[in-house]
């Protein structure tokens, strides 16, 4: 069974993914895959350098992600150009990894953690979609603390993303990560039990 796991920045996607791992799920993190495909020798590396120039390459030959982020943050055309390079490379790498997992465990529950899967339409490749929800004020507080930025800076970053209420419309399952770790773990277990039921129903139909 193949599921997507999404949410917005500082909402706790990685925390929730680790909780699902402890319940026996396999997880794939597209942020990690993004770094892999943009590393020297990666699928996207030469195309990123060709598109954005040597100014985004540091002294060791790696993509300077901070410099690249500054270029695309306020330039929609540049951001879309970067996404058009990186996302196909991520999907190709992800498909290979998922295939390897299924090859060794045909009963696997695989969760791909992908921040933009709704925005890009990539959520349609999953059997179901889990959205991690966090109350907006708590999300703002976490982002400010995590990145050591002002409220104004955090609000600007959040505004660049699809509103979480809109993203929830695409959810098959919702995990609430607004409270304590114990509360989130309880909600993850609730969703995990629902996924098991969904998996059983899919198996009966096949």
Automatic annotation (TrEMBL):
Keywords: ATP-binding, Coenzyme A biosynthesis, Cytoplasm, Kinase, Nucleotide-binding, Transferase. One of its GO terms (molecular function) is dephospho-CoA kinase activity. It is found in: Cytoplasm. InterPro entries: Depp_CoAkinase, P-loop_NTPase. One of its GO terms (cellular component) is cytoplasm. It comes from the Bacteria. It catalyses: 3'-dephospho-CoA + ATP = ADP + CoA + H(+). It is an enzyme of class 2 (transferase). Its EC number is 2.7.1.24. Its main location: cytoplasm. ATP binds at residues 10-15. The keyword Metal-binding does not apply. One of its GO terms (biological process) is coenzyme A biosynthetic process. Pathway: Cofactor biosynthesis; coenzyme A biosynthesis; CoA from (R)-pantothenate: step 5/5. The keyword S-adenosyl-L-methionine does not apply. Gene3D superfamilies: P-loop containing nucleotide triphosphate hydrolases (3.40.50.300). Belongs to the CoaE family. Catalyzes the phosphorylation of the 3'-hydroxyl group of dephosphocoenzyme A to form coenzyme A. HAMAP family: Dephospho_CoA_kinase. This is Dephospho-CoA kinase.
């Amino acid at each position: 069974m193949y599921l997507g796991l999404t949410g917005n920045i500082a909402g706790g996607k990685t925390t929730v993914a680790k909780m699902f791992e402890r319940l026996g799920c396999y997880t794939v993190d597209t942020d990690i895959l993004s770094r892999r495909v943009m590393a020297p020798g990666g699928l996207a590396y030469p195309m990123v350098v060709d598109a954005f120039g040597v100014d985004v390459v540091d002294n060791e030959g790696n993509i300077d992600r901070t410099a690249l982020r500054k270029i695309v943050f306020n330039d929609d055309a540049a951001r879309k150009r970067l996404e058009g390079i990186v996302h196909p490379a991520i999907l190709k790498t992800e498909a290979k990894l998922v295939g390897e997992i299924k090859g060794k465990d045909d009963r696997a529950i695989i969760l791909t953690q992908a921040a933009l899967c709704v925005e890009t339409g990539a959520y349609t490749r999953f059997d179901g979609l889990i959205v991690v929800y966090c109350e907006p004020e708590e999300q703002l507080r976490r982002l400010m603390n995590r990145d050591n930025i002002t409220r104004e800076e955090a609000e600007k970053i959040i505004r660049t993303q699809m509103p979480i209420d809109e993203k929830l419309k695409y959810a098959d399952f919702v995990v609430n990560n607004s409270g304590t770790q114990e509360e989130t773990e309880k909600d993850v277990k609730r969703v995990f039990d629902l996924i098991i039921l969904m998996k059983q129903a899919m198996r009966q139909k096949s």
